[in-house]
Each structure stands twice: as C-alpha cells, then as structure tokens.
Write a structure and sequence with these properties.
Order of helices and strands of chain B: HEEEEEEEE
Number of strands of chain B: 8
CATH architecture of the largest domain in chain B: Beta Barrel
Oligomer: heterodimer
Helix content of chain B: under 10%
Number of domains of chain B: 2
Radius of gyration of chain B: 16 Å
Number of helices of chain B: 1
CATH topology of the largest domain in chain A: Peroxisomal Thiolase, Chain A, domain 1
CATH class of the largest domain in chain A: Alpha Beta
Largest sheet of chain B: 5 strands, antiparallel
Strand order of the largest sheet of chain A: 3-2-4-7-1-8-11-10-9
Radius of gyration of chain A: 19 Å
Largest interface: A-B, 27 and 25 residues
Distance between the termini of chain A: 20 Å
Structural class of chain B: mainly beta
Number of helices of chain A: 13
Number of strands of chain A: 11
Helix content of chain A: 25-40%
Structural class of chain A: alpha/beta
Chain lengths: 384, 128
C-alpha cells in the first residue's frame, strides 16, 4: 500500500508569489490572484490551460469557488480541503492523484492573505472548542507553548536550544532578499524578547505578514516540454491526530511520525537521502518536534541537535533555507511557502542561499494545533 | 438505512447540567471501563455507545501548563490529566504557575457566569 504508482508521475512546473511581507491596500484574493498568475507565467502556461484548482485561505469559506470566479476558470477537478497550514502540502497529493487519473491536465494550488495590513494579527476561521473556551486559550500559541513545556520537562530541552532555531532561521533569511525579517538576531535577543506564553517569547513565534503563493502541477510527460526544470512529486503522506490539544495523546510526539514514513515509503527514500528539509516553523518548538518525528534525530534529542548553528547556513543539515515562517514570511497558512522554497532550491535558483547539492527536498506542513501533519518529498530529474 | 432516534439532551448539555448542579461528571464505557472526556455520544475508536456518567474523583496531575501574558494581565492555562485517564484544559487557581507533575484537585466555580471546573494545588496531607 505504498502508493508507489504515482511516484514521479507529476511535477511542479511553475511557482509564484506576491506581496510577501507588507502589501498595504491589497486584499487576500488580490494577492492570491497575483501569485497564481505569476506561477502560471513561470510555467510558461496560460490561465486558460488551468483545469484543476486547489485552494485554502483563512477568509474564504468556499475557497475554490471564490478563486475560480475571480480568475474566471472552470476547473474539472477542485479541492478546497482545509486542515490548516498543511493544506497545500496535502493538495500536492490530491493534485497528483487527479492528474494521474486524467481528471485534469494542469492544477493550480494557491493561497493569499493580507493579515498583517488588515489588522496585524493572525486571522483564523478556527472555531473555539467548547470544553476549552472558559479557560481562554490563545490558540495557536497556547497549544504550542504547552507542547514546548512538556518537551522541556521530558527531555531537558532548554529555552536556549529553542532560541538557536530562531537564530538559524534569521541567518538563512539574511541570505534571502525576499525575506521580511532580516538583520542580526542573537540567542540573547530571543531570550530577552517579550514572553508571550511560557516558554515562548515573541521571537519564538512566526511572523505575521501578508503574502500570496501559488504553484502549478502537470503530468511528468508534459513537464519536460515546459519552460522551467520540473520538480517531481516523489511522495506525499498525511496524518491527523486531534482537533483539540487536550486530545493529543502525547504532546511531544506528533503525527509527523506517521506522515513522514508514508511519504518516504512512496518516494522509496529515507531521511539521510534528503538534501533540504523544509519544516513548518510556526514556533521554534515545531522545527524541533518535526526533526525528531521525521527521523532526522532521535526523539528527545532535537534540542541538542539544533544547538550552535547545526541547522544554520554552513551547518550539518540545511533546514528552512528561506528563513522560514520565523523570519521569511508567514501570512497565517504557511504550507505553500515550504513548497516554493524547495522548488527554488531544486531548480538552483536560490542565489546566495543556494545549496551545493539539492536533488531531494522534504516539505513538512503542520496544521491546527499540531493537529494535521503532511509530508511531501520532491525531487529533481536525477531522482526519477 | 438505520435511523437513530435522538431524544432529549446530548452529552454536552448533560455535562453542563451536572456542572450547574455542582457535579463534575465524566463518561465511562460499561464494556471497556475506559473513561472519556470531553463528553461524546460514543467511546472513541470502538464506537461503542455504552457510555455512562460517573462522578470524577477530581484528583489529577498537571500534564503541561503555560502562562498567557498580556498587557491586561497574566493567567495560566493547564492540561490536567485526571486520575481516571482523560485530559482536559483548565487552570490552576491561586498560583501564577506550578511545575508539571503537580497534584491538583478539581473545584467547580463560575467563569463568565457559567459553571466551570478549575483546579487547586493539593497540599501535603491530601487536602486541596
């Protein structure tokens, strides 16, 4: 049941973004549409070629309806699955299945948000859980802080170790002209910034930015004749564990431990094969949890693994080379931005932050309050 | 098809009714003996709809805790693991925070005009 039949059968052929950081006066769907048209142009296709559509946002109840109307497309395949910020990594699987089944020929996966200029706060359609509501949790941070506290208690993880994750992300962002938060950031800066929810300070939290993102997928046979070097979808796996953080069986073990092996099995690969690791860093603790749960270090060792620049530029593992949600861009649902950076690196278009070798990239999306986990493995032509 | 009758209040409303009577009730499967919280129509995983209401012992342990810090003030939010097994969100009253593993006991109070379960630290000797 590994699903090997779709390994390498589809590819990402176009990527685009719009208004990363601050886009005053732009609405979410305007940013989404700009990014979508950029991705289609990057692929060398035209809007009329798009007959598959995947979308999720924090402001549209029926995202594919809104996007299809706005762009004037009539998709034969569409999927508006919303499982939080990981949705777009899941859309890769839905798109790959639909393309392979011949339901459509070119799928647009897209997202947009103006949450920064619209109010400067995370916008979410997520409804409160009735049994949590009296205690006034401030999700998502409350849930992630609870997970971080538990990890520190069980494994001796320290605030300094978490801070090193934010510092590594900033060092990568400093090599990326498209990153929103650039400039020096030290471990002490992170530790001394405002405590928001113990043990997480404001610098342990992702940015609140605007931004649109999109990618275009086609079948592998067609991908070869298009403008850009194709980036193949080798494996995708998703897993759910809970809706409310109260129901998460173990706050130090996420369902990435299930989604990762599913994706690796489909791709026929293992963690040591991966050149670039793109992890959804909504908070510093998520990077650490996913490094462990995806098999890049043993459970409980994430804190010691990331210390002293190990995931920073020049470190032992390339993680979040765009600067991540912590320092590059985070408009509320970050999943698609993981994919864009992976494609950029595999194409060799990453400029000053370009990895010497990048044939295999892992993208790991997280949604809700550690609730949904989706892992995708992308590869260059050499991996087919 | 099988069409189930759905008479009377469901488990969520029943839980709230018990709470307004000053009783902290949780569910237990008659077959497996497993305790369930939050209240549902059936035991998770097995789907057995044999859940009965039982009074919680009220004793539990802090599984994790954070302090939400805002300009308007700070308050803790805790996950409490009941001695019966299930976990719930609540707060530990009378302290800013406590270490994970601290023993606590439930008390029913009122939050925003509604009855709600909160916890107090269990002092030595067992009294809350």
């Amino acid at each position: 049941m590994s699903g090997n039949s779709i390994r390498g059968r589809t590819a990402i052929v176009g990527i685009g973004g719009a208004g990363w950081g601050e886009a005053p006066g732009r609405t979410a769907i305007e940013l989404l549409a700009d990014a979508a048209l950029a991705a289609i142009e990057d692929a060398g296709l035209e809007l009329k070629d798009i007959d598959g559509l995947c979308a999720a946002t924090s402001v549209h109840a029926f995202p594919t309806l809104s996007v299809a109307e706005y762009l004037g497309i009539k998709p034969t395949f569409f999927d508006g699955t919303n499982i939080g910020g990981s949705s777009f990594v899941m859309h890769l699987l839905q798109a790959a299945l639909a393309l392979d089944a011949g339901l459509c020929n070119a799928v647009l996966i897209c997202y947009g948000s103006n949450q920064r200029t619209a109010g400067g706060r995370l916008i979410s359609m997520s409804e409160p859980q009735w049994h949590e509501k009296p205690y006034k949790p401030r999700h998502p941070i409350t849930s992630y802080a609870l997970a971080a506290q538990r990890h520190m208690y069980e494994f001796g993880t320290t605030r300094e170790m978490l801070a090193d994750i934010a510092v590594a992300a900033r060092q990568w962002a400093n090599l990326n002209p498209n990153a929103f938060a650039r400039g020096p950031l030290t471990r002490e800066d992170v530790l001394n910034s405002r405590m928001v929810s113990d043990p997480l300070t404001s610098r342990d939290c992702c940015l609140v930015t605007d931004g649109g993102a999109a990618c275009v997928m086609v079948r592998a046979d067609r991908a070869k004749s298009l403008k850009k070097k194709p980036v193949y979808v080798l494996g995708v796996g998703g897993a759910h564990s809970h809706r409310s953080i109260t129901q998460m069986a173990d706050l130090t073990r996420t369902a990435a431990a299930e989604s990762g092996p599913r994706a690796f099995a489909m791709a026929g690969l293992k963690p040591s094969d991966v050149d670039l690791v793109m992890l959804y860093d909504a908070f510093t603790i998520t990077t650490l949890l996913f490094l462990e749960d995806l098999g890049f270090c043993p459970k409980g060792e994430g804190g010691r693994f990331v210390q002293d620049g190990a995931i920073a530029p020049g470190g032992k593992l390339a993680v979040n080379t765009n600067g991540g949600g912590l320092s590059c861009v985070h408009p509320g649902m970050y999943g698609l931005f993981l994919i864009l950076e992976a494609v950029t690196q595999i194409r060799g278009e990453a400029g000053a932050r370009q990895l010497k070798t990048c044939d295999i990239a892992l993208c790991h999306g997280n949604g809700g309050t550690l609730s949904s986990q989706v892992t995708a493995i992308l590869g260059s032509e050499a991996t087919l | 098809m099988i069409l189930k009758e759905a008479p009377g209040p469901g488990p969520e409303q029943e839980f709230r009714s018990y709470l307004s009577e000053g009783r902290f009730m949780i569910q237990r499967s008659r077959f497996s003996g497993r305790y369930v919280f939050f209240p549902r129509v059936a035991e998770p995983e097995s789907g057995r709809s044999d859940l009965e209401w039982v009074e919680a012992s009220g004793f539990g342990t802090v599984y994790s805790i954070t302090v939400n810090r805002t300009r308007e003030g700070s308050y803790n939010i805790a996950l409490i693991e009941l001695d019966e097994g299930p976990r719930l969100m609540s707060r530990v009253e009378g302290v800013e925070t406590v270490p994970i593993g601290t023993r606590v006991k439930a008390r029913i109070t009122e939050i925003d005009g509604e009855p709600a379960v909160v916890f107090d630290v269990v002092r030595e000797g067992g009294a809350a």
